[in-house]
Specification:
Elements (H helix, E strand, L loop, with lengths): L12 H8 L4 E6 L5 H14 L8 E5 L2 H11 L8 E4 H13 L11 E2 L2 H4 L6 E3 L7 E3 L3 E7 L2 E8 L2 E4 L2 H18 L1 E2 L1 H26 L2 E4 L7 H10 L6 E6 L15 H6 L4 E6 L1 E2 L4 H9 L8 E2 L7 E7 L8 H9 L6 E5 L2 H7 L13 H14 L3 H17 L6 H6 L4 H16 L7 H18 L41 E4 L8 E7 L10 H4 L8 H10 L2 E10 H10 L1 H5 L5 E2 L5
Parallel strand pairs: 1-12, 1-13, 2-3, 2-11, 4-10, 11-12, 14-15, 16-20, 16-21, 17-18, 17-19, 19-20
Antiparallel strand pairs: 5-6, 7-8, 8-9
Length: 593
């Protein structure tokens, strides 16, 4: 049963200027909380109400399925043919790649789009994506993120991290991709983006014209999140003079640069013939004091203005001295006590920080020098705390590293050595059993050596011989800190740090959400956690870290709390005194003892 349509709000002056404009392409830059979704939906409503072209329809597109569902609900439910309300991904696959894929070598028999969850299950075919032997990935883990010297820029998930494929390997991997597409017709979402852009480039005006007759009006929301090739697809499509378009987003909230998204996409649309730019600068969400902080982090320098009748709001700058972002219950209670309203979110830049702030039961407390032993200890914690799938994945990769000298090895390699699935499972079980065993008074040094013996025994049971590889050298004697006793595995805390209803997450995951109170937490600066006083005002990566900070602070509806390490405060006071002055006197976080 579809939801009843929400009654439209009276448009603001800025919104109305967009709604009544006759421009062929309306390019809207909207600040946080500007009511862009309401305006976007109202534009769709008006178009559908006056629609009189039975041969064609309206395409209303957004970045995610959640956004698609929101649009559907607000216009009154699922809208049928000839119209299409869906994702940018879905449109590119259904109306560009499937009907025109033969232009770029896809099989005439059809194209299949494999979702990310399915792609993660494949272990073949693999390609070498980096300079090290372990830097291999399946073709499904190689993604398109840009263009350089007429070749695509490729990113790959290899050796537990994302790497950029070196230029000398790109052509070989690109050719492998094309051969696989032609043979199987299987494409990933990233492949689909690249292929759609290539189709519209090769097919030119003829293909654009056919799509324009099918969808003479196109609406695009959250433009700033669109990756490089998907963005090129819709820019090329909107070059057709038969298409009217409305594109909406906020370049200051372009925080998916790792996927090729860039705030410059707004300039590309604005350069189209018949394009007119618009700005929504009046936030319906942020109170006056919060708007000042948000404006201070605006990478584009565009202001974020509170409504004239908006409340002042509240700001607080909390200073902590935590070496790691692990809060004691009194500290969490202190932060929560500063909040106002009924909804609170504590957000951070990185997932590891958010997990620690949440009071996650998986914590890396390994003492020593062995990276592989550290991972096995984490596997034991995952298993003990109800996540066997992650534990098995970690041990599976470690066995592959030692037995095959390749953590990405799969079923084919096991079959080649005559290893049965039952033997492989037994080897994993043996290592996990040893890792979970508790030995009274055992030090980390002794535990590492015991785990090394368990891994060796498991590998020997699979037919591996000790002199075949030096893989076990990774299990080194720990340093002096490893003489500390290995405590029992961390168990679920008796009481959670945060009550049900509070949100503890990353900035990326709360993008688009809003809360009465927002706590932006920055841990002690380190190699993995650069100082916000430096990165928020840096132009590196085209200012992406500043935009991440911008998204974080702009979630607040009533009160914004910035919680930083004491060293970060000193940097801010030295380099950004006007920014610090917005918050007033810093508040020290209690020790929590």
């Amino acid at each position: 049963m579809s939801s009843p349509p929400q009654p439209p709000k009276e448009p603001t002056e800025e919104q109305n200027a967009v709604l009544i404009s006759p421009a062929r392409v309306r390019v809207v830059r909207a600040c946080p909380g500007a009511g862009k979704t309401e305006m976007f939906v109202e534009a769709i409503r008006r178009e559908l109400k006056s629609w009189n072209k039975p041969a064609g329809g309206v395409a209303a597109l957004s970045f995610t399925n959640v956004a698609r569902q929101t649009i559907e609900a607000r216009v009154g439910g699922v809208v049928g043919a000839p119209h299409f309300i869906g994702t940018l991904d879905g449109f590119a696959f259904r109306f560009v790649v499937k009907p025109f894929g033969h232009l770029v070598g896809l099989p005439a028999g059809g194209v299949r789009l494999f979702p990310a969850a399915m792609c993660a299950q494949f272990t073949q075919p693999t390609v070498q994506v980096g300079g090290q032997p372990k830097e291999r990935a399946t073709l499904f883990q190689v993604h398109f993120s840009g263009v350089e010297k007429k070749l695509p820029v490729l990113r790959a998930e290899a050796a537990y991290r994302q790497i950029t494929v070196p230029a000398e390997r790109v052509q070989e991997i690109f050719d492998a991709k094309k051969n696989y597409w032609a043979k199987t017709g299987i494409v990933t979402h990233s492949d689909c983006h690249f292929l759609a852009a290539a189709i519209l480039k090769k097919g030119g005006a003829a293909v654009r014209g056919l799509i324009a007759r099918r969808f003479p009006v196109i609406f695009i929301d959250e433009l700033q999140d669109t990756g490089f090739f998907l963005a090129r697809t819709f820019v090329r499509l909107c070059e057709d003079p038969g298409i009217k378009a409305l594109v909406v987003g906020d370049p200051n909230q372009a925080i998916y640069g790792f996927g090729g998204a860039s705030p410059t996409i707004f300039d590309d649309f604005q350069a189209l013939e018949g394009a007119t730019p618009f700005a929504l600068t009046l936030s319906q969400r942020c109170p006056k004091k919060v708007s000042q902080v948000v404006s201070a982090l605006s990478y584009s320098k565009a202001p974020v203005n509170a409504r004239p009748d908006a409340a002042d709001g509240e700001l607080a700058l909390v200073v902590h001295s935590l070496a790691i972002p692990k809060l004691l219950p009194p500290q969490a209670a202190f932060l929560r006590g500063l909040g106002v309203g009924t909804s609170l979110a504590i957000i951070s830049r990185r997932t590891t920080t958010a997990n620690s702030l949440r009071g996650a039961i998986i914590r890396d407390e390994f003492c020593g020098r062995s990276g592989v032993a550290r991972k096995i200890n984490l596997a034991a914690e995952y298993l003990a705390n109800g996540d066997p799938a992650t534990a098995v994945t970690i041990i599976d990769r470690e066995l592959c590293r030692v037995v095959f000298d390749d953590p990405q090895a799969g079923l084919e390699e096991r079959k080649g050595k005559g290893i049965t699935p039952a033997q492989w499972r037994a080897a994993i079980f043996g290592i996990l059993t040893a890792a979970l065993a508790k030995v009274e008074g055992e030090t980390w040094n002794a535990w590492v050596q015991r785990i090394k013996a368990a891994v060796q025994a498991a590998c020997v049971s699979l037919g591996w011989q000790l002199n075949e590889t030096s893989g076990l050298k990774a299990y080194m004697i720990c340093n002096e800190t490893g003489n500390a006793p290995r405590n029992q595995l961390i168990e679920i805390p008796v009481a959670p740090l945060w009550p049900v209803g509070d949100t503890v997450s990353t900035i990326h995951k709360v993008k688009g959400a809003e809360f009465e109170t927002v706590i932006v937490f920055a841990p002690k600066p380190s190699k993995g956690h650069p100082c916000p006083a430096k990165e928020w005002w840096s132009d590196e990566a085209q200012g992406e870290e500043r935009r991440v900070g911008f998204v974080g602070v702009s979630r607040a509806k009533q009160k914004l709390i910035l919680c930083v390490h004491v060293s970060t405060l000193k940097e801010l006071q030295a380099k950004q005194p006007e920014f610090v002055a917005l918050f007033g006197e810093p508040i020290p976080m209690p020790a929590g003892a």
